[in-house]
């Protein structure tokens, strides 16, 4: 499945090995020594592949699949076609992710420092660090053990990275303290001054931004995303939060742990997100808003002030999604009731 | 018209030459030897310029124009002011584009490889390739004949570019196979891992993204746009599709031929666009959506599932634009009927 | 308050000095020789700090603050707790910004040209210019006195920068003429060709973009923002306008003086904004729109054609905000009237 120009492929593995990797159980009668060569999708899998089913919508394709083996939930075991090996687990998607990673381990770039990289003598560089070409590392920067820094990336004065971080190409990191195992994709700009002015008819005074960006462990940040530093308080991204491409996080924003911010979402200044909050794509959050733990904001919605913990909101201004769905439904009914025809 | 600091200007041309370039016909009585020095807009053109009219809204300005010559549709020939030379053609805007390109040909950067560019010995570089300063080209990359690669751009392992591609500055290309004559503007990030996780209370497992980005011939991609690679299937951009700045294309998305994606649009994972689809600015398409051939989605709309071929949709959730227009109109009428005054 | 890894801190200052910097007046009985060590926020300030209050919402926190000194409006002087020194001024936020800048002056990078920077011999470089590593400056570029150019930035042929500009890292400037004291953040792409095509069933002709980007004095442009050059007319950003991160400005757009464009806003081709216009975050402006002086467009709104001077608009399509608020309120009332319960 994986193009060898881009991905490594490890040798075939027995079902017993795969069950170990996936923390799955072989269904009764399955041969533990059967060899599987690779992962594949439901539709494309052949006898040498293992696939998975995580959604009942695909049961039919599952029952007709030619895959040699499948990762399935307990309730679907009986639906497997004759001759297919079955690995039973509670979370087939997660199990598949682990097996895929075992067949195609990510290649870590070498832990070498390219001679064109410019590293200030005062910078502290850990062990087993890889730094690509034309990287610029300024005074008093600290890079933890095992980090990888992509080509043409600039790390400004005083920035600290914990162990095991991976930074893409052409990124800029400034005014930030970054935890362990953080991944920042190419083109991201972290630590720029916030967009804060005192304005009136007599002109504009830029408010000095004296805060930092604090990025906790295990955060992931997408390509060309921008995170501004705080104005005095810090901008904070909590542990394990994942942020997609082209997202904007403004000054003083505090994001909790385990949040998910999908592409092109934007969070305005001084807003606070709790833990495990989800912002779907293109969501906007107005400044000084608060969003409670585990709240979910549907795509393109606009949060103007407060969303309670656990709520699912949609629309603009954002409201409980059940309310929004009925509102949208009623609008369309009202329209149709006036005698027009759908296109 | 064109600032010589930025654009070349070729010598004046006769109307006969211009008619040839534009595939236009000289109107009766036009002197084929009349010289024109440059293109200009309707409002700014003088006797030495050629302009065009493509929209009836501007007929009055046309009849009062001082331009030496005009490109016009057949139906407007009679409205030309006395003494103006007229070139008749079906598509004046397209004809004008060709004449503008003849007066101001794009300067191709030289086909030289800057000594600071770092090119892995295993990379295959075609003939007449230009590679600017500080470019990094990794192992097994293939660059087709006549390509131009802008400064500080990074091309990761295994990437292939067809002939005649033009890549801007500070871009990152990875995990992608690119056709001929593709243009990718500065700051674009192609091939980053998709935003796919298996999440639950016990934590997060990153789904390995083992697919690629396939970009077919004659595609154009704007500045700071991001296109993620597939999770197993590929992300595909069909032949001749044009994508504006700051657009997000997620993993596994398949876009057909000749589509137009305007700035800040976003397409979520596994969605499918047919051929000749238009997404206007800031449109969002939810994951697993399908949009039929030649459908048009109005600016800022949100597509949640399916748009039929040929339809014009607007709103959020997107609906047929006729329906949306009436709905918006009724809302405002209802509001006004309650006795309030417009501001 | 400010982390010494990132910010300079100057020595303590007397209240008399601070009053001079802030153009504030010491309240009666204040000791002009009292020393203040730093600025701080309302909540975190101690006896050695000066803070400010600009919003009556925080009066309670003010009356309980432990700050040594406060910047307050005349009407709040009497509410100050006993023992707190008070500096009276009309604009406490602005005064605070000035004092913060005095305690933590921005460190200007050195006016040196890094040996890895590539500067075409025909380029004109002013006095006291700082150019960081791996910068590429092409033929006939002109850089004014006192400019600072960040690492890995590319400045294409013919571009001109006035005195005192500050450009970030990994930016691309092309086809543009830039005034004095302009700030452009990392990753911005200025001067790319506009997104203009002549399209029909027979194919696509790219319209040559022969205009420029004109950026007047004192403009600020955020990270990863993109501004396309004009198609013949120029794209113009007026004096003192500030543009946040990830904003898109299309070809031929004309933006007046002192405008504010918040993050992820987008302005489509040939639209015109007057002076002192505000576009809040994620606003979209359709092409050929006009927005009058001092108009304000609320976040996420979509402007389809015209907004009068001084108006405050919201919604999509954008309407007077008072109208939009009532419309939204009525919709929710109508919905609630049908017997459903809020979540």
From TrEMBL, chains A, B, C:
Residues 34-101 form the UDP-3-O-[3-hydroxymyristoyl] glucosamine N-acyltransferase non-repeat region domain. It comes from Oceanibaculum pacificum. The lineage of its organism: Bacteria, Pseudomonadati, Pseudomonadota, Alphaproteobacteria, Rhodospirillales. GO terms for cellular component: membrane. The active site is at residue 251. This is UDP-3-O-acylglucosamine N-acyltransferase. It is an enzyme of class 2 (transferase). One of its GO terms (molecular function) is UDP-3-O-[(3R)-3-hydroxyacyl]-glucosamine N-acyltransferase activity. Residues 114-226 form the Mannose-1-phosphate guanyltransferase C-terminal domain. SUPFAM superfamilies: Trimeric LpxA-like enzymes (SSF51161). Catalyzes the N-acylation of UDP-3-O-acylglucosamine using 3-hydroxyacyl-ACP as the acyl donor. Is involved in the biosynthesis of lipid A, a phosphorylated glycolipid that anchors the lipopolysaccharide to the outer membrane of the cell. One of its GO terms (biological process) is lipid A biosynthetic process.
């Amino acid at each position: 499945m994986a193009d060898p120009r881009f991905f490594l492929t490890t040798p075939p593995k027995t079902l017993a090995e795969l069950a170990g990797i996936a923390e799955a159980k072989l269904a009764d009668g399955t041969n533990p020594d059967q060899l599987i060569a690779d992962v594949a999708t439901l539709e494309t899998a052949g006898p040498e592949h293992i696939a998975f089913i995580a959604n009942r919508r695909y049961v039919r394709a599952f029952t007709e699949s030619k895959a040699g083996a499948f990762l399935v939930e307990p309730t679907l075991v009986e639906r497997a076609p004759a001759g297919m090996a079955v690995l039973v687990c509670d979370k087939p998607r997660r199990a598949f992710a682990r097996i895929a990673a075992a067949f195609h381990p990510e290649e870590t770039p070498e832990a070498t420092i390219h001679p064109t990289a410019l590293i200030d003598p005062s910078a502290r560089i850990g062990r087993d660090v890889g730094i690509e070409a034309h990287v610029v590392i300024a005074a008093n920067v600290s890079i933890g053990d095992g980090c990888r820094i992509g080509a043409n990336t600039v790390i400004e004065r005083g920035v600290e990275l914990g162990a095991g971080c991976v930074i893409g190409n052409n990124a800029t990191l400034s005014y930030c303290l970054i935890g362990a195992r953080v991944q920042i994709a190419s083109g991201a700009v972290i630590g720029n001054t916030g967009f804060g002015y005192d304005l009136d008819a007599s002109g504009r005074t830029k408010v000095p931004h004296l805060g930092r960006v604090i990025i906790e462990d295990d955060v992931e940040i997408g390509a060309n995303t921008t995170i501004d530093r705080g104005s005095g308080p810090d901008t904070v991204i909590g542990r394990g939060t994942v942020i997609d491409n082209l997202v904007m996080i403004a000054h003083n924003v505090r994001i909790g742990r385990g949040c998910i911010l999908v592409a092109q979402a934007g969070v305005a200044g001084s807003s606070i997100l709790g833990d495990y909050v989800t912002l779907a794509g293109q969501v906007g959050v107005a400044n000084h808003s608060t969003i409670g733990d585990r709240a979910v904001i549907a795509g393109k919605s606009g949060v103007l002030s407060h969303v309670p913990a656990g709520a699912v909101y949609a629309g603009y201004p954002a409201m409980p999604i059940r309310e929004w769905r009925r509102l949208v439904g009623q609008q369309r009914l009202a329209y149709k009731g006036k005698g027009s025809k759908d296109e």
